[in-house]
Design brief:
This protein is α+β, with helices and mostly antiparallel strands and about 700 residues long. It has 27 helices and 25 strands.
Length: about 700
């Protein structure tokens, strides 16, 4: 905990000390003299009559903030008011901090009655100084005059020195009184602010209790702000731990380490602690792992990285990294990252890792039997045995890496599988990641050097994901490597022979990139001699249901819960949905649905909101659960009845025609009477306002 004198205003601190010894009258005189001294020293500092360190009646962090505020061209003798965000920008802030605001409302509304009869109010501001909530009583009109209202931005650049600004900058509780603020506000303000952190240890907001009358502020007011902040923070932690538990529950034999935006290790499971044999929590990741550029890459870009190796020469260790994933907030901003690994220290563990990668996916384990996917698997099997370069195309999330691993296990199952995401590695690092480097090749390089991904893939497969994002100058180097089967480490002058299979993948049109002169034509033809294109999930028909059931089973196994079944209406909703995120989105959706289901059945309302059908209400959605269970037990995964498909086709036609019966009939090739009969048979009920016959 920080010393009290660093947090309390000297005005309030002085009052407390004097009060113990003298009369209230002396308190008032002492306060007034101190306030005048603060005002004078502020002017003297800003006019350079005294040096900053000579201002001895205020804390130095306040003096430095005065100077910064002055450099922002703010007027210390006038009123500097915040400005309002545009409505759409403020709504985005409210969306991002929805949980925070809800928890703050609960805590502060409970205390708001205490403000009655005083000029006190409370302010909730985000980490950037945007005011999300103002909880006021008698102070309403005065607060409004200061533009201290929800949606206004109060930071050091707009209003200068104030308590929640310094609280956010120092990330500790602080109290300011009167002239300690930079501006001569219309009314004197005394404010006590406390920080609120997320589970990763990142600052997320501040809570401030302010008053227009210094009589209502003391050391206990700061304590109240800290108490409220802690209460809100604890509720945030409970919410965030639900996800955190999932992160550290991954394969108990795997080590899992979580790192926050400040590069501090905030969580580690038992396997991780055993692997290192030393305390991990609270340490900078560089102290434990050294300079790992891929971790910095994920923290900076928010993009995951799969299957890599961390060399730790100082600890004489090598970690086989399964994946490094970002930890994101609701707005998609990176809060930190976590990675899963196995330590290579014994032959047993190394063999287990190699076997795990090798058995990760084979063609026989790819879920799906639609004509498109069956034909694709057959084609990929033929390509795999040719020992040639293969290009995999498809939208994000369709499972390109799954096919890459299946190709690897078909062609070189005993060799390593090295995956590199070309879009996730900063441009200045990708060369050393691919080709490795000699010791001392650049600042921060490991003393013994490091093998690159191409060298590490020798005897196996190199998978270059998002190949379309590879820098143009490196494309020429890669082309030469493919022709000569040799690489040269950064900082070296000798070639190393390598033998590997190359599988590349992209969600872009590479030929279009060639025409735009951002991708080499000669490299394109080298990579694209053998191409496979994975269809998007929305085109795979009943594979959607098979994959959904597969992911439900995996979720139930990990969560140690009974396997729930999909209701017919939920199946219909999944078939109808467009799946812009493809298989990856389906996996996340089924994790959500299995977690939300009750009584062992996943209903439509258990699916994520975007997958529910607002315009079509299916009759009998509350079917008897025993009947649903019996049907699922009797039918195999491949059974999605013809009647089900016809029902879905009718619903799609109704939606496409905006529920115009005549248009829907024409689309389906039915007469209107037939369509009416089938709507009745399948129990399809549409909104009356949309239900038109012509």
């Amino acid at each position: 905990m920080f010393p009290l004198e660093q947090m309390l205003s000297p005005v309030i601190n002085k009052r407390s000390n004097v009060f113990l010894e003298d009369s209230l009258k002396k308190v008032s005189i002492s306060e007034s003299l101190l306030i005048e001294r603060i005002k004078k020293q502020k002017i003297d500092v800003l006019t350079k009559k005294i040096k900053p360190f000579e201002a001895d009646v205020v804390r130095q962090e306040i003096v430095q903030s005065w100077i910064r505020s002055y450099n922002y061209n703010l007027d210390p003798f006038g009123t500097n008011l915040g400005y309002y965000l545009k409505e759409n920008a403020f709504q985005e802030v409210l969306h991002v901090y929805e949980n925070l605001i809800q928890f703050a409302d609960g805590h502060i509304n409970y205390l708001q009655d205490m403000f009655i009869g005083t000029n006190c109010y409370a302010i909730l501001a985000d980490q950037d100084g945007v005011i999300c909530r103002v909880y006021a009583s008698k102070a309403d009109k005065q607060v409004e005059k200061l533009l201290m209202m929800p949606g206004s931005l109060w930071n050091e650049e707009t209003v200068g020195t104030c308590s929640h600004v310094l609280c956010a900058l120092s990330q500790r509780p602080i109290q300011l009184c009167g002239p300690e603020h930079y501006s001569e506000l219309p009314l004197p303000i005394v404010a006590s602010s406390a920080p609120i952190f997320d589970i990763q240890g990142n600052l997320t907001a501040t809570i401030t209790i302010a008053s227009l009358d210094s009589r209502y502020q003391n050391a206990h007011t700061l304590g109240m702000a800290v108490s409220i902040a802690k209460g809100i923070q604890n509720e945030l932690f409970l919410e965030e731990r639900k996800e955190a538990r999932n992160l550290t529950a991954i394969d108990s034999d795997d080590g899992v380490i979580t790192i926050n935006k400040q590069e501090v290790i905030t969580k580690a499971n038992i396997a991780a602690i055993k692997a290192f044999g030393i305390p991990l929590l609270g340490a900078k990741f560089t102290e434990i792992l050294g300079e790992q550029t891929l971790i910095r890459s994920v923290l900076e870009t928010g993009k995951s990285i799969q299957d890599t190796v961390f060399e730790l020469p100082l600890r004489n260790m090598k970690l086989h990294i399964r994946a490094i994933h970002p930890v994101l907030d609701k707005a998609g901003r990176t809060l930190g990252c976590f990675f899963t690994f196995q330590k290579a220290g014994s032959s047993k563990k190394t063999t287990r890792f190699t076997q795990a990668v090798k058995n990760g996916f084979t063609f026989d384990e790819i879920v799906g039997s639609s004509p498109q996917i069956s034909k694709l698997i057959s084609k990929a099997r033929k390509f795999a045995v040719l020992d040639t370069n293969i290009l995999i195309q498809g939208e994000s999330g369709v499972g390109k890496e799954v096919f890459a691993q299946a190709i690897h296990n078909e062609s070189r199952p005993n060799g390593p599988f090295m995956a590199v995401n070309c879009a996730a590695i900063p441009r200045n690092l990708i060369e050393s990641e691919l080709f490795g480097y000699e010791g001392g090749a650049f600042t921060g390089a490991e003393r013994r050097g490091m093998a690159g991904k191409i060298e590490s893939a020798a005897g196996g497969t190199l998978f270059l994901d998002e190949i379309g994002d590879m820098p143009l100058d490196l494309q020429a180097v890669l082309l030469r490597v493919l022709e000569e089967k040799k690489i040269m480490r950064v900082g070296s002058n000798r070639y190393i022979s390598v033998d590997f299979n190359l599988v590349t993948a992209t969600n872009k049109d590479l030929f279009s990139l060639v025409q735009q002169k951002v991708f080499r034509e000669d490299l394109y033809y080298r990579l694209a001699a053998f191409k496979i294109t994975i269809p998007p999930l929305r085109e795979r028909g009943n594979d959607i249901i098979k994959l959904a059931k597969y992911f439900i089973c995996r979720t139930a196994e990990k969560q140690n819960i009974p396997i729930p079944v999909l209701s017919k209406d939920a199946e219909t909703a999944l078939i109808l949905y467009a799946w812009p995120g493809n298989v990856r989105q389906l996996q996340n959706a089924m994790f959500y649905a299995a977690s939300m289901a009750s009584n062992g059945v996943i209903q439509v309302e258990d699916l994520p909101d975007e997958m529910q059908m607002p315009d079509v209400i299916l009759a009998g959605s509350r079917q008897d659960e025993d009947h649903i269970t019996t049907r699922n037990n009797k039918t195999s995964d491949s059974d999605f009845l013809i009647s089900d498909m016809e029902k879905i086709t009718i619903i799609q036609a109704l939606q496409k025609s905006d529920f115009n019966i005549a248009e829907a009939s024409e689309l389906l090739g039915f007469c209107k009477s037939t369509l009416y009969r089938k709507i009745k048979r399948y129990g399809i009920v549409v909104k009356p306002s949309n239900y038109m016959s012509d």
